[in-house]
Amino acid sequence: MKLSVKGECTLSDVMLYLGTNTTLLNDGRYRTAPDIFQLIVDHNVVHFHEVNTDESHVCHLLETVFDDIETCCTEDLPKGGKNYVKHGKLDMVYFDQDHNFDSMLLALETWFPKLKKGGIMCGYDPSRFLSAGGIANAVSNFVDTNNLQLNTSQHNGHVYWFTK
């Protein structure tokens, strides 16, 4: 039986559910999974959207673990899919996309209104976020302009996040 995001679920529960024999956490594509799971269980995320990825790795993993999470990836929507997501609907938006300033800033400005109040916007970029680069500058600019607080993940620091 899958876990519930709405119940009393912890990161330990998630890891126990996945077990030590799974390849899901060991193939390199999911190295940020503990950080994403921590945000999801801490904030009871039910509506999760993954933006601009070539494959919806995180969505796949979440659907494997939880029975009550609604996931979507921009690759699953028709062209211009951002227009199909209503403002204020999403609990969490996860970015894993282009690594230049203009595209990242546009993505932040486009998807931020889609979050519910208290929703989480986060992303992953190990090689560019903590050093000077397109994503770092775009995220910092957006956070400063909107008077938000920027955080990094507890486990490996490769996931950045802020709340609406």
Question: Can you give a write-up of this model?
Answer:
- With about 160 residues, the chain is an alpha/beta fold.
- It has one domain: Vaccinia Virus protein VP39 (Rossmann fold, 3-Layer(aba) Sandwich).
- It is about 30% helix and about 20% strand.
- The chain contains 5 helices and 6 strands.
- A 6-stranded mixed sheet has the order 2-1-3-4-6-5, with helices on both faces.
- β5 and β6 form a beta hairpin.
- It is globular, with a radius of gyration of 15 Å.
- About 30% of the residues are buried.
Percent range of helical residues: 25-40%
How many domain regions? Answer: 1
Structural class per helix/strand content?
alpha/beta
Strand content: 15-25%
Quote the average pLDDT: 78
CATH class (first level) name: Alpha Beta
Quick one: how many beta strands? 6
CATH 4th-level superfamily: Vaccinia Virus protein VP39
